[in-house]
Amino acid sequence: MSRFWKPGTEKPVLVDDEEGGVLFYSSLSSSSRYGHASIEKQRQRLPVYKYRTSILYLVENHATTVIVGETGSGKTTQIPQYLKEAGWAEGGRMIACTQPRRLAVQSVASRVSEEMGVKLGEEVGYTIRFEDITNADVTRIKFLTDGVLLREMMDDPLLSKYSVIMVDEAHERSLSTDILLGLLKKIQRRRPELRLVISSATIEAESMASFFNNSRKRQERDTEELGPKKEPAILSVEGRGFNVQTFYSEEPVPDYIRAAVSTVSSIHDEEPMGDILVFLTGQDDIEAAIQMLTEDSEVTRKQGLFVLPLYSGLPRSDQDLVFSPTPRGKRKVVISTNIAETSLTLEGIAYVVDCGFSKQRFYNPMTDIENLVVAPISKASARQRAGRAGRLRPGKCYRLYTEEYYLNEMSAHGIPEMQRSNLVSCVIQLKALGIDNILGFDWPASPSPEALIRALEVLYSLGVIDDDAKLTSPAGFQVAEIPLDPMISKMILASNDYGCSEEVITIASVLSIQSIWFSVRGSQKELDEAKLRFAAAEGDHVTFLNVYKGFIESGKSSNWCHKNHVNYQAMKKVQEIRQQLRRIAQRLGIALKSCEGDTRAVRKAITAGFFANACRLEAFSHNGLYKTIRSSQEVYIHPSSVLFRVNPKWVIFHSIVSTDRQYMRNVISIDPSWLTEAAPHFYQNQQLKSRAQ
DNA sequence: ACTTCCTAC
């Protein structure tokens, strides 16, 4: 076993902590009871404070400043305040700070308003979907998701109200962050007075800086030019994370679930108190590990473990359990997907067990299918996972792979989402912003030409772009205006023609959230029975309408949801999205109209958006084998669909989830003649006829 | 016989 010190951190402060993590948690986390003066002192104790002058100098003199900030440096909360204190928000200008996640936007904004002693929504505000807590006249620092900032560009392409835009967590390389970075680089050329602050982890800093380097060979002239230097500056700010000692497996591990379980047992046996966080890949792994841990007689005998699962599909109340205090004398073990890598932060973790894998999405432009596969994580992820053990005190990380593997075989960072995704939404957003040459766009990470061409083909077949790849009018502009996937947006537009916009908007809202069903481990049967009460012979989309109707008729009762295994929180969200979409539809001139149960009209509207996802049951198929019309891919109806084992001859799916087989999720039955009606250009008559026999 | 994780006037 070898040791590993986290680079860039000081020697560990050794802390004698017989009491476990809880004590530290309470002593560090409660800032709200301090007065204003001591908030000021707290701010000055943050590592980033030492760099205040340097940061302001660099932002003043460089168009782009890349800040490398380890977690706990305070960069996100402090830099916007420094900028404001230095006058960047004077003269009606604003400072923007983007985050990839809604939750982060809310918590950072409220923290900063607290530090500044102002009411949230006044000088400091935030905007996320459905929540605009800003006041145009007084808000000077605005936190927002990068998706919202992209949407803002549709009205204000140069983002002219902002003097500085800070893009936080840029190293995560999310789809919308990368689109945003590409567009900001373009804006910079038109607005030399604009300043960018890109915050990134060490590993991506150089590539961020070189992406924003506009100076090229003109460095000599550059110094004589007025205005900021075009060459980006890089500044590193150390974090306040504690050291994490890392151990590797001596031999490659044949079964990481078993290895994770035995590692947890030996930590429990040999190490001082402190909570354990285990990273596995998905629900199945997690449940298997929990079962093994609770069945392990030796561990159970000691009765010392408090084991909790954590993944996004888990009901909220179960997720919240991981934040509950560890019972005295027990050790909390959270077994999690990578939701705990970035989205959720557990304080007080002393030990991390990292299996070295995660589920990752890969897109195949040839088949237009996104696959979900278990793949090795990157060094960057491994470091991030390890860091989860050192938030409040020094910790330990056990990697279930060899050091040799880490050093020589693990890739430095993951593949950007841009290169692993279907790009229809991304392309239409750029089109709407007037970017004509999509293939020539200066991306932070270029997607494959195949994926771009596929996206253009899909948009063309939807009638959203024309022969010159320009947005069509009005359909193209309307689809771009709806904040959903273009296929869904097209379905909403078509619902106007079929007189079923109310129903289709409900369906679009349900499809926008993860699941409307409340699924608990062990009650699968009850859930299946509940589904049967709403099941429609036409398929899942119509089933959603039945559920929504029942929910409304119950007076939006949470009790009704509980009885029917419907997720109440999800239904509230459906309602919110539905209201938003109704407003947008009205603005676009779509008449809000119900078809009063005419499910043919509803399915025709769905077909108008999703004709490309048509499948036909294979003749003589006994196991429900379908093939897609477009590319003859072999697919099956997902077991969660109401049409599972019903197997109608012709179906359309909303999406494919690819595990051991390709499963169609959310399926409706259709009449094949609707395909030629919806997209004559896409389905040549002979193509369907030749397959109809 | 099954669900990594996010976001969007």
From TrEMBL:
The keyword Cell membrane does not apply. Gene3D superfamilies: 1.20.120.1080, P-loop containing nucleotide triphosphate hydrolases. PROSITE patterns: DEAH_ATP_HELICASE, HELICASE_ATP_BIND_1, HELICASE_CTER. It is an enzyme of class 3 (hydrolase). Coiled coil: none annotated. CDD domains: DEXHc_DHX35, SF2_C_RHA. Residues 56-221 form the Helicase ATP-binding domain. It catalyses: ATP + H2O = ADP + phosphate + H(+). Residues 256-434 form the Helicase C-terminal domain. Keywords: ATP-binding, Helicase, Hydrolase, Nucleotide-binding. Its EC number is 3.6.4.13. GO terms for molecular function: ATP binding; hydrolase activity; RNA helicase activity. InterPro entries: DEAD-box_helicase_OB_fold, DEAD/DEAH_box_helicase_dom, DNA/RNA_helicase_DEAH_CS, HA2_WH, Helicase-assoc_dom, Helicase_ATP-bd, Helicase_C-like, P-loop_NTPase. Pfam families: DEAD, HA2_C, Helicase_C, OB_NTP_bind, WHD_HA2. This is RNA helicase. It comes from Penstemon smallii.
